[in-house]
Specification:
Strands 3-2-1-4-5 form a five-stranded parallel β-sheet. Helix content is 54%, strand content 10%. The mean pLDDT is 92. The radius of gyration is 15 Å and the shape is globular.
């Protein structure tokens, strides 16, 4: 199993964890270091129409928020959006083995780049396995209520793995 004491995280999982649990503290509990590229910080702080998750992101002082743009390879920049490309590039640059990305295409590119991949649901399942009192069903319901899309396959698999099906 890869060393998972460090992780580089993308925008969607940050927003989804806030939707599921109300804050980002579970990331601090599960990882020694959580790196956030500047490109992801900018996406979150832009906040879209709702601004959802900004306060929780800013309150997570322990996140390692990059202050300078990541020098992204042309391949990644042309294949993915800037946040996802920055996550993969930063992981490669900093020799971090695991990235947290929810989007399927970016997950494939990360794996092809030699990285281990997890996502929001993977983080929630890991927390539950490690003894945190988390209802996967309630977390998924909160995420769906916030407009976060999850496939039936992902939902059913998560509930089964959590013993909540």
């Amino acid at each position: 199993m890869p060393n998972t004491d460090k992780i580089v995280i993308n925008t969607a999982p940050i927003i989804s964890v806030v939707a599921a649990l109300g804050d980002l503290n579970i990331l601090q509990s599960l990882y020694n270091q959580v790196l956030v590229p500047l490109e992801v910080c900018q996406e979150i702080l832009t906040g879209g129409t709702s601004g959802f998750g900004i306060a929780e992101f800013e309150a997570a002082f322990w996140l390692q928020k990059w202050q300078t743009p990541v020098n992204i390879s042309p391949f990644l920049l042309n294949s993915l959006d800037s946040g996802e490309a920055a996550v993969i590039q930063l992981a490669i640059n900093e020799n971090v083995q695991t990235v947290c990305i929810d989007e399927a295409t970016s997950r494939r590119v990360a794996r092809l780049s030699g990285l281990s991949v997890t996502g929001t649901v993977g983080i929630l399942l890991r927390a539950k396995r490690e003894g945190y009192s988390i209802s996967i069903q309630q977390s998924i319901q909160r995420m769906l209520a916030r407009g976060i899309r999850l496939s039936k396959t992902v939902i059913n698999s998560a509930l089964e793995q959590a013993g909540e099906s």
